[in-house]
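CHAIN AND CONFORMATION:
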Amino acid sequence: MRSKKRVLVIDMFNMFYRAWVVDPSLSLNGPPIGGLKGSLKILQKLVREMKPDKILICWDGPGGSFKRRSINKNYKEGRKPARCNWGDSSSLSPEEKEQNRKWQQLRLMDYFNEIPVCQLFLHDVEADDIISFACQLEDLKGWQKIIISSDKDFYQLLNDEVLLYRPIQKQLLNKNDIIEGFNIHPNNFTLARAMVGDKSDGLKGVPGVGLKTIAKRFPFLAEEKVHSLDRIIKHCQNVNSNLKVYENIQQHEDLVVENYTLMQLYMPNITAGGSF
């Protein structure tokens, strides 16, 4: 018997969209229902295997992240829509597919209102920030928090109470997995990623810089101590090396600062009007 209560903190659109793309199921009347059906099946499996005491369903709010787009207008722009497994067998146009996706999502939210889960979303706020906020709730202090998402952005939140379950990879990760896998502590993971950038979110990185390079050239990022960009810049200035990586980071300091502001979840960007 486990000593801590357990809460699942679910990145719901991440789960739903994957089911919508993969599951070709049709209703008796013909319209696709794979996202709806698949999400419920995944949730049922998670509950059966993880036996949570509480479930928090976190959705992206309408409009996405207003604050991040105000900083970088290209944030998450240009993403190509995923190709649905049922696309070739469906007579739906691209516009009708999008309408169907929204319909399935709304029906799923209605169903969740009838079962013992808590749904959270805010206008102009991403689910990432809501998940971070939920993991820091005083009411959940001492609980085991398991984030359900395939998104690597949540590596930064892992600590003694917060784990990440990646459904596609069937991985349950803790903070030690991140330290051992990347030689970077979760407390410093966003700083590292701010230098690398994130193509999927439209964020450019410092040329010639990857996570392996960062771990090798800045070994102190494996420490639990939270380090700053100033520490990185000073290291670049003082190190006795002519490697281009140190020069590139100094030249792109403003880019790293902006990326860090966009990527960090340590202080969630929940500033929109409205309530849960």
